[in-house]
Amino acid sequence: MKQVVTTKKAPCAVGPYSQAIRVQDTLYVSGQLPIDAKTGMMPYGVEKQTEQSIKNIQEILAVEGFLLSDVVKTTVFLSDMNEFAIMNGMYANYFVSPFPSRSTVAVAALPKGAKVEIECIAQR
Fold first, then answer.
1. For residue 77, what are the β-bridge partners?
2. H or E element in which residue 120 lies
3. What span, in angstroms and rounded, lies between the C-alpha atoms of 97 and 60?
4. Which CATH number fits domain 2-123: 3.90.1150.10, 3.30.1330.40, 3.40.50.1860, 3.40.50.1360?
5. Residue 17: what pLDDT?
């Protein structure tokens, strides 16, 4: 049975989707824009936006007692693949070996003009 997971410590879903869905020991986290839930603002630059997106993921994971070390798969959406190295450098500050599998996709645009959005799957 699936269970909706939500927290006010990460940006609220603004459409017909959930922040996350838990099915047994797996948590599926929707793409997280780099919006600070307290201020509603996005930091400038892909480095700080990557950091904020990951912090939002951490807040959602924490609701169900998951950690970043439980993440088995991420998908990173970038509006400019020329900023991959910058994103990757910040990403490496949060995920440690054994690293989750990852796809990085260049997109034409992201909501609210974001430079990065990250989704993940966590498993215990």
1. 105, 117
2. strand 116-123
3. 21
4. 3.30.1330.40
5. 96
State the chain's mean pLDDT as an integer: 97
Sequence-separated (6 or more) residues with CB below 8 Å from residue 114 = 33, 34, 35, 42, 49, 79
Angle between helices 46-63 and 84-91 (to 10 degrees): 40
| Cα gap 29→69, rounded to integer Å | 14
Give the per-residue pLDDT at 69: 97
| Cβ burial 14-38 (10 Å sphere, 16+ → b, else e) | eeeebbbebeeeebbbbbbbbbeee
Closest CA to 66 of 99, 96, 27: 27
Beta bridge partners of 15: none
Q: What percent of the chain has a predicted confidence (pLDDT) above 90?
A: 98
Q: What is the pLDDT of residue 9?
A: 97
pLDDT tens by residue, 4-59: 999 999 999 878 999 999 999 999 999 999 999 999 999 999 999 999 999 999 99
